[in-house]
Amino acid sequence: MVIYHIGVYVFGDTMNSKPEIIEITIDKQKLKDLQDRLKNPHISSAAKNALIKQVAGGFCSHCEEIPTKIASYDMHGAKLIEKYCDKCLKIWVK
Ligand SMILES: [Zn+2]
Question: Pairing state of beta strands 20-23 and 69-75?
């Protein structure tokens, strides 16, 4: 059973349990292409969002940047999955 991030109160419940951190592997060239396109003012934000989804599988759960890590929390046998960028991982996962 997998529960996706649905709100801060769910996250608050998990603060005591240490998550398992899984690296999101994105091909270096693909990541560079993505970052270049995100800087391009001629590409719409909807198209940029679609690109992030396509390359990284979704967004950081906290700031909607490109995620680099997945944190998997064990909640009484259920799993809570959250994606983090490097910046938010430092802030939220101790
Ligand atoms: Zn973030």
Answer: antiparallel
